[in-house]
Design brief:
Number of helices: 28
CATH architecture of one domain: Alpha Horseshoe
Pfam families: PPR (PF01535), PPR_2 (PF13041)
Keywords: Repeat
Number of strands: 0
Helix content: 55-70%
Shape: globular
Family: Belongs to the PPR family. P subfamily.
GO molecular function: mRNA binding
Radius of gyration: 24 Å
CATH class of one domain: Mainly Alpha
Low-confidence stretches: 1-36, 458-476, 486-506
Structural class: mainly alpha
Protein name: Pentatricopeptide repeat-containing protein
Length: 506
């Protein structure tokens, strides 16, 4: 039986999402959290991925503490589920008994290396693995790495090797179907489905959802409805709220709003007590896209009635009200969020700032940032970037340049991509004004791999996109969990599988 535990991992930098944990099995819960002092509990508070946990591990050994290989492996999986990939890899490589790794352990390590050090290092690690250890899990992990990088040719090459080796193919088919679906390679997707049917592989839950999402994304209503009926008739598949939300997305995209509303109503009725925040998040988003404010408020009432008070719930509710052009309602929800006891999440503040700047309410946006500074919050690059863009669009270039400077100073070591159009305009303004800090800004940008010539080229081609939803990670977690042995099907607040269910809001 799967249990879910919410871990709030403290961090001095609250704008990053490594402070939200994922679900894990009851076995891991008991072995890693039951005793008053264990190694995992020492690792847990060290949330910043830039700070190594190796000194903590070495200190444990110096104290003569016992090392349990089973618990260490469980801790690696748990850190990975927590999205703490760097620390998970550090722990995996610190473990002394590397010769006793199972194929599942190797698969997890391969995945972590790809995430932390890149694909080339992952390939080197795979090549060093003995042939006897290269089971379908290890090959499947490499296949998943290629798929995550959207490298179709390499993924197809590994897929062919797995076919010839007689590997368990159901999961690899799902990985390839998901890749083709995301890249809109309809012909290859259909060919692979035919191959599955020829090999006698029946559709599982994940397969159905991938195919359903593909037909919904292409607005192929006939194919979507045919597949949905097949799912409902399949005694093995439990059609839950996810499927109805996907169908609602397909109907909405095709302009069939009444049918979309019917699907959402069914989805709402299927939400169980055991379902977590994402069920409500997607319903909020979908009802907002349909312009149904009454249902948005009803879903929010149900969410709070469940006792849920999570950052991502407030994020989606505020965004939903903004999409409904209810800025006053969004402000009230923001104030409610500020008043509750939760970790400060700048994505929520950024959502409101983005709405203010689009409406020209720059004083309100500025007031939010000033309040965060006064409360001694470390304002991230994303927030300064949003504010700078608002000033730029309002032709307040002095303030835009000031905010952009702060964005550049705060950007190092983060994954945030600055709005290149605003950046270009601010650099030009600083040049005209003879700003002595301009050269320092250019050097900092160069250190981060941002060359002024490239910024100019992006500006000229207009190839830079800007969206608040760029801050949300997009992960195919269901495939990850099946491949790498995570027992939990629960999606985290920050990393629900938006692409899998076709519900990106950008």
């Amino acid at each position: 039986m799967i249990k879910t535990l919410k871990l709030l991992i403290s961090s001095k930098n609250p704008n990053h999402n490594w402070n939200v944990a994922s679900g894990f099995s009851s076995f891991s819960t008991k072995t890693l959290l039951s005793s008053s002092d264990n190694l995992f509990k020492r690792i847990l508070p060290a949330g910043d991925p830039k700070v190594s946990i190796v000194p903590i591990l070495d200190q444990w050994v110096q104290e003569g503490r016992p090392l349990n290989q089973s618990e260490l492996k469980s801790a690696v999986k748990l850190l990975r589920n927590c999205k703490r990939y760097t620390h998970a890899l550090q722990l995996a490589e610190w473990m002394k008994d590397s010769s006793n790794l199972s194929p599942a352990d190797i698969a997890i390590r391969l995945d972590l290396i790809s995430r932390v050090r890149g694909l080339r290092e992952a390939e080197k690690y795979f090549n060093d693995v003995s042939d006897t250890s290269k089971t379908y899990k290890v090959y499947g992990s490499l296949l998943n790495c290629y798929a995550s990088y959207k490298l179709v040719d390499k993924a197809e090459e590994i897929m062919q090797i797995m076919r010839q080796s007689g590997c368990n193919m159901e999961l690899s088919y799902n990985i390839m179907l998901n890749l083709y679906s995301k890249l809109r390679k309809c012909e290859k997707l259909e060919k692979l489905v035919q191959e599955m049917e020829k090999d006698g592989l029946s559709c599982g839950k994940s397969t159905y959802y991938i195919l359903l999402n593909a037909s919904a994304a292409d607005s192929d209503i006939e194919a979507m409805e045919k597949l949905f009926k097949k799912m409902e008739m399949d005694p093995v598949v439990n059609v839950n709220w996810h499927a109805y939300v996907i169908a609602a997305k397909g109907y909405s995209k095709a302009g069939l709003r009444d049918k979309a509303s019917d699907m959402l109503k069914k989805a709402k009725n299927l939400i169980r007590r055991s379902d977590t925040g994402p069920a409500y998040h997607f319903l909020l988003s979908m009802y907002a896209s349909l312009g149904n404010k009454d249902e948005v408020n009803e879903i929010w009432h149900l969410y709070k009635k469940r006792g849920l008070r999570r950052n991502m719930g407030y994020f989606y509710m505020i965004n939903s009200l903004i999409r409904l052009d209810d800025i006053n309602g969004a402000e009230k929800i923001f104030q409610e969020w500020e008043a509750i006891n939760t970790s400060y999440d700048f994505r929520i503040l950024n959502t409101l700032i983005n709405a203010y700047t689009k409406k020209g309410l720059l004083r309100e946006a500025e007031a939010l940032v000033n309040k965060a500074v006064e409360c001694e919050k470390k304002v991230p690059a994303s927030t300064w970037d949003h504010l700078s863009t608002g000033y730029y669009k309002d032709n307040q270039m002095e303030k835009a340049a000031y905010a952009m400077k702060n964005a550049v100073f705060s950007c190092k070591g983060t994954s945030w991509t600055l709005n290149c159009i605003t950046l270009k305009a601010c650099l030009e303004y600083m040049k005209v004004k003879g700003d002595v800090e301009r050269e320092k800004i250019v050097r900092l940008l160069a250190e981060q791999g941002i060359i002024l010539e490239n910024v100019t080229r992006l500006h000229e081609t207009g190839s830079c996109e800007f969206s608040i939803f760029d801050e949300l990670e997009k992960n195919d977690e269901e495939i990850d969990s099946l491949l790498l042995g995570s027992k939990s099907e629960v999606m985290t607040d920050n990393n629900h599988s938006n692409e899998m269910y076709g519900l990106n809001n950008s």
